[in-house]
Amino acid sequence: MIDKDVLQISETLGVPVGKLYMLSNDYIPRKKSRKSKYNNYHTVVIHRGRGHKNRVLSVPNNFLKMVQRRLLERYLYRLDVSECSTAYSKGKSLLDNASPHVGKECVLKLDISHFFDSIDDDMVYMIMKQFGLSDPATALLTNLCVHNCKLPQGAPTSPYIANLVMTHFDEKLGAWCSERSIAYTRYCDDMTFSGTKEAVKSSHIIRKVKRMLYRMGFELNEKKTVFISSSQQQRVTGIVVNERPQLTREMRRSIRQEVYYCTKYGVKESLQHRGLDISEQKYLHSLLGQISFALQIDPQNEDMRRYFDTVKNLMNT
């Protein structure tokens, strides 16, 4: 007899129980007469350029990905993450991660080593227990979201689950920082702290974070620890926060140059001169997206508003 909570999951996700259990295993037998197995995941390697380690993703097949998206929408989004967590949540953006650190005397950036790989099936099981379902149903939800007993970086459910795993950590650390007049946000594995030099240095944040992470089974990547004073360019997830949120000087210059070349020489000639094999409309859409992002971060930037109008006119000619 099938567990009633498992049946409920089947109805909620719109997938037969047998197929859910098939997807919750790490493999699907092809034929009884053959020993070969088909994995529900495949590996994707993202090359990050010289000096950076390649990023290895475990990506689910299309059917499992569809089921995971439904699970995300119909189950996981019922659970709230911390306000300190600014990645992978509806209504949150890079700007939400950067804004609390604007105009601060110093910024401290810390990084969690092997973030997704450090989240195992036991951690995910504890998240799924919050739905109050039976043990078989909780195990089914867990197994639909893990691969090789780990949280797979590449599954649509993984980022939000990671935030849920970190909820207590974020709340506790956020309260601790607030008591010391220090701002704290976390964007995936990037943690950012800001305040006066005295507050940041005297509170021994690094030691505190290392202990808290260790208790959870995580490790601080000390090689990526960065301390930035207000006399330097303070960047938080790619956004400059010294005086107001804005793109880096290099990114603003790049946008200005691209708009200049397009207006002076024409879009087609500009693309040919730069050796870019891309359609004019696709290129302009991409450029407009960059400008829109700049305006999202700094809405009062008059130059970006002018560039936006210029590119829109080029798209309509």
Short précis:
With 317 residues, the chain is α+β, with helices and mostly antiparallel strands. It is built from 14 helices and ten strands.
What does this protein structure show overall?
The structure is a single chain. The chain is 47% helix and 14% strand. The protein has helices at residues 4-13, 17-24, 62-74, 94-98, 121-128, 135-143, 158-165, 167-178, 197-202, 205-216, 249-265, 267-274, 280-297, 302-316, and strands spanning 27-29, 37-39, 41-46, 55-60, 106-111, 183-187, 190-195, 226-229, 235-236, 239-240. The chain is globular, with a radius of gyration of 23 Å.
Structural category: alpha+beta
Largest sheet: 4 strands, antiparallel
User: Gap between N and C termini, in Å?
Assistant: 66 Å
Mean of pLDDT: 91
| Uncertain ranges | none
Task: Provide the β-strand percentage band.
Answer: 5-15%
Within the largest sheet, what's the order of strands? 6-7-5-8
Number of DSSP-assigned strands: 10
Helix content: 40-55%
Radius of gyration: 23 Å
Global outline: globular
Number of H/I helices? 14
Instruction: Give me the strand/helix succession.
Output: HHEEEEHHEHHHHEEHHEEEHHHH
